[in-house]
Amino acid sequence: MEKKTTGSFSRPKVLSYYYYLILFFFCIIISPSPCCGDLSFGFYSASCPSAEFMIRNTVRTASSRDPTVPGKLLRLLFHDCFVEGCDASVLLQGNGTERSDPANTSLDGFSVIDSAKKVLEFFCPETVSCADILALAARDAVEFLLRFQQVGEMGRFLQLQMFDLTSLIQALQWMK
């Protein structure tokens, strides 16, 4: 029996692709950067303790309204980090900026970053950098996406002892 293709990826291939893409970005984000300044976990724990919580809630709200938000935020982070480092320059508007570059005109998800920035500026003015907001938002979007993936039940048990070799071969002939 010939398997028909519709021109799109099958679900396992797409999930495998996303898994490797997420793993790649995770390695990039946590790898030591030649940039100036020391990165640390809990950087805002004293200056704005609820920063990560506010960003996470903004991302979850946006992602629950629009399921394409996680991909948009991950793509924003990619375009920001692979052009002269993770400096949030992709968020800047105006002539001659990364955002106005023809390669970036299809980028989306800026409204989620803007919403998170507005909330943070209200509670912790001039504290959390836009680069950190973008990195945390992409992280939280991926976490949101992976948490809500449907996983099929596993653990099927095929009782092979009830088949002899001949009947097993006959039963599995349809797989050719």
User: What is the CATH level 1 assignment of the domain at 50-151?
Assistant: Mainly Alpha
Quickly give the CATH architecture of the domain at 50-151.
Orthogonal Bundle
- Which regions have little confidence, pLDDT < 50, spanning 5+ residues? 1-5
Give the helix proportion (percent range). Answer: 40-55%
Shape: elongated
Taking the sheet with the most strands, its summary is: none
Distance between the termini: 7 Å
- The gyration radius over C-alpha positions equals 23 Å
CATH fold call of the domain at 50-151: Peroxidase, domain 1
The assigned structural class equals mainly alpha
Order of helices and strands: HHHHHH
Percent range for β-strand residues: under 5%
Q: What is the overall number of helices?
A: 6
Q: Number of DSSP strands?
A: 0
Mean pLDDT: 77
